[in-house]
Amino acid sequence: MLGCTYCGQTSFVDADSLDAVGEKAPLIDYGSSFEIGKMGKWKDKEFMVLGRLRYSYEDGFWDEWYLNCFDDGSELWVQEDDGSFVIFYYEEELSYRMDYDAVRVGSKVKFNEKIHSVFITSKSKASIQGGEGELPFRVIPGSQADFIDGVMEGKVVSAEFLPSDNIIYVGQPVDLDELKLRN
Amino acid sequence: MIKTQSELASVKQFNCQNCGNGLYVHNPRAQYICCQYCGSVLDAASETHQILQKLDKPTKHKPMSFIELGQIANFYGRNYQVISRSRWRSKYNEYWSEEGESGYSREVWIYDEWLLIDERKTYFYLIEDKEGYYISDEIIPQHPTLLPNNLRMKFFDDQPNSIVREYGDSELIYFEGESNYRIAKNEQKKFAMFKHRGINYESEWRMHPEHKDQIKEIEFFKETPISRRKVLEAFQGNQAIEDLYKREGQWRFVAIMGSIASFLALFFMFVSIGEDGEQIFYQSLDTQQLAEETGFESQPIEITEPGIFKLELNASQITPQSEFFIFAYILDKDKQAINQIQETFYYYSGTDSDGSWTESRTNTDKIFKLKEPGTYYLQLYKNRESVFSNTLEVKVNQGIILTRYFVLLFIAFLIFTIYAFGKSRGGF
Predict the structure, then answer these.
(1) Residues paired with residue A172 on neighbouring β-strands, in sequence order
(2) Is residue A164 exposed (0-12), middle (13-18) or buried (19+ Cβ within 10 Å)?
(3) pLDDT single digits (tens) A31-55
(4) Residue B27 CB burial class (10 angstroms; 0-12, 13-18, ≥19)
């Protein structure tokens, strides 16, 4: 998936062609330490910022930055919300369709055998406002992206409910200095 | 207003649609701004900056100390700008423990949450209340919990299960500055807090506005105390801090002067205790002489300077198991009484089931003031019933220093000094 950083047009990369999808949704720059093309290092992993997704929900919006690690080609996501950052280093598809409405904030939920006893801290209806740069999956601005956030054994767990699939991310809060961002 | 270089970059400025005062938006993500001059909440994101609602007048919720919106503070080696203040009123249960008993008492507490943002758009909260300051950091606990039934909680493996120190509700009663979220006065949140190694650990949760029985969001915080001195250091360079230092310096000077005055009052108080002045009259009398109707009248006593005098009567020899009553008058030159003293002198002793006992009164005195120099007399009478012969010494001293005045002065200076010291350290 590619999002033009100038006009906001989202395009799907298919073989050698670019198919424009969705409406043009240029993202307003609210100022961030992240920028597409910037490089950094988290723990031993050198990475480059490839893209950004912006989600909107009833309380505002948040950004998720897509990072690609040079060494092993692995992916990282950094969630930037109100000046705090969470790095997600593990993701897994949820193999079943979860009953989003049945989940209560304050309860413990089992997502699968690995990710269980997740203490739910928030959930909200959300949608993808837009994307820019290079992204690993098809993004259609305006599409549903409800989420359930929780905590498990000192880690952050976030489940995203996209139209195509449900993905669980596991991560941890990170200080901006720890990411050693550079141009 | 000319922006100083110390202000963070990319500031959006516009005037309040209600009162016309200048407003500054430092956080590009801010959607709303509440005017700190009139309390109007404006749309910060649009060009029209429409008034959305009105909160309380800011004068009702003045800051507790020197921190103000727009100030720059240096924390963790970075410059932060103060962009908002939320004032909360908590009604909560506070744990107490005394002499083997414990329980929770109902309390009310007010505190401010200052939001600071740096150039990288990262935030942190500085909590301020009457007792001090805390830096609040969001944390991800290993053992997330709200308010357990047994009122004991811990967040991390290395913490013991600790008693919940406080739990209850907080209500937003005032807001000023920028916000990414819609400002909702009277917004409620619940909390439960425990302490570990001097740090407060807190879970905070907001109920769903529509589904009242459901929680909307839960957050966990660590609140680390920070001394006033360190907060002042962080805010150094702001005009308000310079003014505060100046004011506190003046109070410190006043406090030092007050300490010196207190010390002097204390010194003179002790000096005055042993200072009886100069004796200007002495007479030893046999009380039999006083039994007559004329009593005793002294020779003229010449007073050359007005001042404070002391008349002292001392029954230096008193017949056991007896008592007598004395009237003493101070007369002016026309032999008119201008002051008087009366006292019963006695000496009794005996034995009872507790052993031997003695009761006596053998002396008395009176301080009096003479406003004019001149000739004065002393006149003494005794009650006629007493037939024993006793010895009564009569003394008049001048130049008396009154200890009680120094005691009062000492207390007054001490209270003032404590107040001034408190002011010099930002108290009261």
Answers:
(1) A87
(2) exposed
(3) 788 999 999 999 989 999 999 999 9
(4) buried
Cβ-in-10-Å burial (0-12, 13-18, 19+) of B109 comes to middle
Determine whether the interchain pair A173/B138 forms a contact, defined as Cβ–Cβ distance below 8 Å.
Answer: yes
CA distance A53 to A67: 12
From B156, which residue of chain A is nearest by alpha-carbon distance? A154
Q: Write a three-state SS string for chain B.
A: CCCCCCCCCCCEEEECCCCCCEEEECCCCCCEEECCCCCEEEECCCCCCCEEEECCCHHHHCCCCCCCCCCEEEECCEEEEEEEEEEEEEEEEEEEEECCEEEEEEEEEEEEEEEEEECCCCEEEEEEECCEEEEEEECCCCCCCCCCCCCEECCCCCCCCEECCEEEEEEEEEEEEEECCCCCCCCEEEEEEEEECCEEEEEEEEECCCCCCCEEEEEEEEEEEECHHHHHHHCCCCHHHHHHHHHHHHHHHHHHHHHHHHHHHHHHHHHHHHCCCEEEEEEEEEHHHHHCCCCEECCCEEECCCEEEEEEEEEEECCCCEEEEEEEEEECCCCCEEEEEEEEEEEEEEEECCEEEEEEECEEEEEEEECCCEEEEEEEEECCCCCCCCEEEEEEEECCCCHHHHHHHHHHHHHHHHHHHHHHCCCC
Cβ distance of A122 and B216 shorter than 8 Å: yes
Q: Judge whether A170 is closer than 8 Å to chain B, CB to CB.
A: no
Residue of A38, A86, A151 for testing the chain B interface, max B β-carbons within 10 Å = A151
| Matching residue, tokens 């660590």 | B222
- Say what the ipTM of the complex is: 0.86
The 3-state DSSP class for residue A178 equals helix
Q: What does pLDDT average to over chain A?
A: 86
What pLDDT shows up at residue B1?
Answer: 34
- pLDDT given for residue A173 in this prediction: 94
Residues of chain B with pLDDT under 50: 1-9
| Under 8 Å between Cβ of A109 and A120 | yes
Q: Residues of chain B whose C-beta is under 8 A from some C-beta in A?
A: 10, 28-29, 31, 117, 120-123, 138-142, 144-146, 156, 180-182, 205, 214-220
- Whether residue B144 and residue A151 make contact (CB cut-off 8 A), yes or no, is yes
In this prediction the pTM is 0.74
Question: With helix as H, strand as E and coil as C, how does A113-162 read?
Answer: CCCCCEEEEEEECEEEEEEEEECCCCCCCCCECEEEEEEECCEEEEEEEC
Q: Which residue has the higher pLDDT, B224 or A101?
A: B224
Distances (CA, A) of B81 to A31, B84, B344: 16, 9, 78
Supply the DSSP string of A23-64, one letter for each residue: ---PPP----S--TT-EEEETTEEEEEEEEEEEEETTEEEEE
Structure tokens at B230: 């360190």
Residue A102 three-state SS? helix
B108 with B91: CB under 8 angstroms?
yes
Q: What is the pLDDT of residue A15?
A: 52
Tokens matching residue B76: 């963790």
